[in-house]
Structure formats: structure tokens, C-alpha cells
Amino acid sequence: MNLKRILALSAMCCGFAMAGHALAHAHPKSMVPAADAAVASPAEVRIVFNEALETAFSSLTVQDAAGHAVAGGKTEVDSATHATMHMSLPALVPGVYTVKWVAVARDGHRSSGSYRFTVK
What is the pLDDT along the chain (120 residues), one digit of tens a residue? Predict the structure, then answer.
């Protein structure tokens, strides 16, 4: 094989390896309430991810505008699909809330993020 061909194959293999690594993280497909939504006080926060989660290492928290945690239920991961994480909420007063999530995929890769919604 010539050097150009070896370099091209190496670059292609590295690209596939990096693409596979990027896809190995759990990311939200849908969220309830949705990001930036203005809603009545929701009964729960629910996030559907693009892959199965490790229940013991995945979590949700909800904070009010002052950064105080809202006393909600325990974070649960759907036992059938393992890709939906949810938490029940008490009645929320009007204001802006931030949902913070940590998702650990079955392969051990960790991702996290946050979004806001408003209770009207």
C-alpha cells in the first residue's frame, strides 16, 4: 500500500471511531414540560432520551428562580424502555424553573444539561 492510501484509511477509521463515540451519549429527544414553555403547574417532569439509561446514576432536579431545589419525588427511569426519566412535582407557584438532568447511558457515558420552563 502506498502512504496516501494508508493515511486516507487511517483518517477514515478515526472519523468513524469519533462518530461512534459521540453517538454513545444519551441526549433528550423530548421534554415535558418543553424547554421555554409557559405552562400551568405540571404534575411531573419527564424527559425521553435517545438511548437506555443506567437508573442508579441518572437524575433530575428542579430549581426555582432563586436556585432552591423544589421538593419533588424521587427520579425514576421507566422500567420498560429504560430511556424515559421522570420525577413528580408538588404544586408550583408562578415563576421560572430550571430542570437539571444527568443521564448515564448503559455503556457508562455521562451527559448532562438543563433547560427552563415558566409556570404561569
Answer: 665 555 444 545 444 444 444 456 999 999 999 999 999 999 999 999 999 999 999 999 999 999 999 988 999 999 999 999 999 999 999 999 999 999 999 999 999 999 999 999
pTM of the model as a whole: 0.80
* Burial class of 105 by CB neighbour count within 10 A (0 to 12, 13 to 18, 19+): buried
Q: Would you put residue 67 in left (φ > 0), alpha (ψ -120 to 50) or beta? A: left
What are the b/e assignments for 1-34, b being 16+ CB within 10 Å? eeeeeeeeeeeeeeeeeeeeeeeebbebeebebe
For 66-94, give the DSSP string. TSPBP-----EE-TTTS-EEEEE--PPPS
* Contact in structure between 93 and 66 (CB atoms under 8 Å): no
